[in-house]
Amino acid sequence: MYNRKVIGIRIRNLRLKKGWNQDDLAQAAGISTKYLGELERAVKSGTLENLETIAAALDTTLSELLAYSEQLGQIEQSHTLIEIVDMLSKRTVDEQKSVSDIIEIVLKTFDQKK
Fold first, then answer.
1. 79 near 5, Cβ under 8 Å?
2. How far apart are CA 70 and CA 16, in angstroms?
3. Within 13 Å of residue 106, how many CA atoms lie on the same side as its CB?
4. Are the C-beta atoms of 9 and 90 separated by less than 8 Å?
5. From the CB of residue 96, how many other CB atoms can be counted at a distance below 10 Å?
6. The CATH number of domain 4-113, selected from 1.10.260.40, 1.10.150.20, 3.40.50.300, 3.40.50.2000
7. How many CB atoms lie within 10 A of CB 108?
8. Per residue in 60-108, pLDDT tens?
9. Sign of CA pseudo-dihedral 87, 71, 38, 12
């Protein structure tokens, strides 16, 4: 079973990585822009057929799209973690490393207070 919030985030991230807006992806996948927006916001769940079409338009596979969902779903069904992953996915590797370093410092501070 996949997490529709994670799938929506993944679709949006892949779309943005291609430099596409929702209209571009909707046209490439043969779906309406409204429906795509609802998928990205997790208002609706996509059918496997639609997700496969969207994945193909994004130059990935349905398996990779769902594997990403499963991977994040196993971390925890936490909205906060998903949002953090979403924010970091839009940043450069150097920026991600800087954020990781900051998190590490904060967590060490928390551990010292225990």
1. yes
2. 21
3. 6
4. no
5. 14
6. 1.10.260.40
7. 10
8. 999 888 876 555 555 555 667 777 877 887 788 889 889 989 999 999 9
9. positive
